[in-house]
Write a structure and sequence with these properties.
By secondary structure, this protein is α+β, with helices and mostly antiparallel strands. The protein has a domain of 204 residues. The N terminus and C terminus are likely disordered. One of its GO terms (cellular component) is plasma membrane.
Length: 325
């Protein structure tokens, strides 16, 4: 399978570069994750309290909220794999892919996640799971067909850094509040409309509108907090992967290639995948110019390439034509 092995002639140089480099803690990322979770926690408490007052049923609200949060936290990896038609593959099926993951995990001194493959032409990769011991690294067959060995290595290192930094779990938990807000709106709306007694209660319309307004506000705030954290964590993962492999130009090449190929895929074929943009290596969409970047889960391609170019110069990496640096 092309794109899944490293050329042996580069291995000695690679080992010299990375043996002293692991996924070191990113303090700025840790602070941002902590602040985001704190603010979302306050928002979550206020949201639940408002629902209890409005719906006059704290048991129902708490049970639903706790159940959904637990399900999303414990089963996020299975949900993501199912949605993207991914399946866990063994060493015998994809030995070269497993070999790259084994080597990177050994260098980074981290547990090896389950390795999965999604039979999709869209070239992408993602990592999910509640912690490094319960994580899944998934790549699409479209990505495996398109990338050269050093490019694949950079992408896998990027995804492994998400697991090592534990920002996958943070994004999973953080995303829950927006999901809950949306579900609450639907639940209250249908219970009031089809509940029979709700139509006779003069306060029903007021309660419905208030709950929907609160839920919409909560969703909007959580949306922008999560997007801001997501954009930064992608830059942090690019930086960590470049430092681990010592080849930022290869990661830049993969970014350029995959972004260009995804932009050629019809939008209708990307709609299902776009729901999981926050977890992907590169978003399942085209460029996001201007103010639309505020709504994006990823920084712009230019911003990511600029950072990799700076790292390449810092490492003194030779820069082939068309790559970072």
């Amino acid at each position: 399978m092309p794109g899944c092995t490293l050329e042996s002639k580069r291995v000695p140089d690679f080992e010299v570069i990375v043996m002293q480099s692991r996924f070191q803690a990113d303090r700025r990322l840790t602070v941002r994750m902590g602040v985001t979770l704190f603010l979302l926690g306050l928002l979550y408490v206020a949201f639940v309290a408002a629902l209890i007052v409005l719906l006059k049923s704290w048991v129902l609200v708490v049970v639903i909220a706790a159940g959904l949060l637990g399900a999303q936290y414990w089963f996020s990896d299975r949900i993501a794999l199912y949605a993207m038609r991914g399946r866990v593959v063994e060493q015998e099926e994809y030995p070269q892919l497993h070999g790259v993951v084994d080597r990177l995990c050994a260098i980074a001194d981290m547990p090896k996640p389950a390795v999965a493959v999604s039979d999709m032409d869209m070239p992408n990769a993602f990592a999910t799971g509640r912690n490094p011991d319960h994580a899944v690294l998934c790549v699409t067959t479209g990505l495996l067909r398109r990338l050269e060995p050093d490019e694949l290595e950079g992408v896998l290192a990027h995804e492994l850094s998400h697991v090592a930094h534990k920002d996958v779990a943070v994004i999973t938990v953080a995303s829950f509040l927006g999901v809950l807000a949306g579900l609450i709106v639907r639940f209250v709306f249908y219970s009031q409309v089809f509940g029979g007694h709700g139509r006779k209660d003069q306060n029903a319309a007021v309660v419905l509108m208030t709950v929907m307004a609160v839920s919409a506000a909560v969703y909007a705030l959580s949306f922008f907090l999560i997007r801001a954290l997501s954009r930064y964590r992608e830059l942090a993962a690019d930086r960590a992967a470049a430092m681990l492999t010592g080849r930022p130009s290869a990661l830049a090449s993969a970014l350029t290639k995959l972004t260009g190929d995804i932009a050629k895929i019809p939008t209708r074929d990307l709609r299902t995948a776009q729901a999981f943009n926050a977890f992907y290596f590169t978003p399942a969409s085209g460029k996001t110019p201007g103010i639309q970047r505020l709504f994006s889960t990823h920084p712009s391609l230019e911003e990511r390439l600029d950072q990799l170019g700076r790292i390449s110069r810092e490492l003194g990496e030779s820069s082939p034509s068309g790559k970072a640096g």
